[in-house]
Amino acid sequence: MKTTLLVVGRTVEPHFITAINDYVQRTKRYLTFEMEVIPELKNTKSLSMEVQKEKEGELICKAFQPGDVIVLLDEGGKEMRSIEFADYMKRKMNTVNKRLVFVIGGPYGFSQKVYQAAHEKMSLSKMTFSHQMVRLIFVEQLYRAMNILSGGPYHHE
């Protein structure tokens, strides 16, 4: 199984880039993982929030491949503790044949087309985080889950 984090727009803050890249590299020790960036839309000032979501949604859906299991990182999704997320990943590693794709949308969330394409929704918190911070939190939790499954020392519980 390949695992992909699909994001809209590039990470621009150097400290986030460094930390994200660190956890991506750590995670790759355990599973095939990549972060795929969909370029942000240009000239969005003249576009309504809904039009922006639709245009981003089209780009997100184009990135999906046949057989993908799509999980939206969405405030309305299921919350899990780190141990539960590790169990979730273990189940997915045994059942997903192609790619497990986690998606972080743009600033206004997902279009209906993306929601319709998704298989599941997952929430990292009830709090709101910047999109760059969500990327870091997610890759850290993915690394933590893989370390838990391998019996590593990273997680203390």
From TrEMBL:
GO molecular function: rRNA (pseudouridine-N3-)-methyltransferase activity
Catalysed reaction, written as an equation: pseudouridine(1915) in 23S rRNA + S-adenosyl-L-methionine = N(3)-methylpseudouridine(1915) in 23S rRNA + S-adenosyl-L-homocysteine + H(+)
Keyword Methyltransferase: yes
Matching Pfam families: SPOUT_MTase
InterPro entries xrefs: Alpha/beta_knot_MTases (IPR029028), RlmH-like (IPR003742), tRNA_m1G_MTases_N (IPR029026)
Cell compartments where the protein resides: Cytoplasm
Chief location bin: cytoplasm
Residue numbers binding S-adenosyl-L-methionine: L73, G105, L124, S125, K126, M127, T128, F129
HAMAP family listed in its UniProt record: 23SrRNA_methyltr_H
Protein family according to the UniProt entry: Belongs to the RNA methyltransferase RlmH family.
Role description: Specifically methylates the pseudouridine at position 1915 (m3Psi1915) in 23S rRNA.
Protein's UniProt name: Ribosomal RNA large subunit methyltransferase H
Organism: Bacteroides stercorirosoris
Gene for this chain: rlmH
